[in-house]
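Follow-up to my earlier ticket, as requested here are the two runs.
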Amino acid sequence: MTLRTGHIGLNVTDLDRSLAFYRDVLGFTLIGEGKEEDRRYAFLGDGSALVLTLWQQAANGFAGDRAGLHHLAFEADSIERVREYEEALRTYGVDFAYDGVVAHREGAASGGIFFHDPDGTRLEISVPNGAEGAPAPVESAPTCGFF
């Protein structure tokens, strides 16, 4: 049996702010949470499984220049759904790495949007096809590698 991704755990600086972002903007369902002052956390799912855990254990925002998590990618079921997320994220005031939907590489059918959560963690929402004709902002490497 090959292992596959179970859930992702992220350290966050402000659980309430991050919970609002992942629940209210990205649409994850709150499964459970710990509210003790020194043990705050939230379990988020997709309706059937645990997807993401948020742990209020960080004193500073995400450091993208250190070994560890590079980015977190979510897959949507259609390019239209990616665009719906883009609109919701723009309304929320999110920092985007690129303008609109971009391809994963030149000529690719796969692509999506690339942005940052409230702590600066790099996030992607993409589809395996449907992004045909979208620009590829990085010619010599995968788009998701250098944002």
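Run two:
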Amino acid sequence: MTAHSLGIEAANFSAPHSAFLSARRVSEQLGVTLSELARLVGVARNTLTAKAATRKVDLALSPVVRILAMATEMAGDESRAVIWFKHQPIPGWAGKTAYDLVAEGKADKVLAYLEAVRSGVYA
């Protein structure tokens, strides 16, 4: 899965002159260190910066980028999407944020929630 196959918004997270996602760009957008991003997506920090690990990095980062792209589309602004991702509790998850759920390996639950909101289920 490449940044371009994730959508136009996700292209903001690709490495320069590359079809792959950039861990550095994702970490900058989220305002976290590469070590924090590695913990969030469940890979070793060295994996995020290794040249040979581009496909593995893409697989690890793509759920986060998908969530941020969808949240940006809904919020209308990248910075508001990041604030939501890191700080806004998701209903039904005991005060947990999208960041918390992604760190627990539940990015699919966040994406399902966003799809439901976008469809008007929770609106």
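The only thing I checked on run two: The chain has eight helices and no strands. Let me know what else you need.
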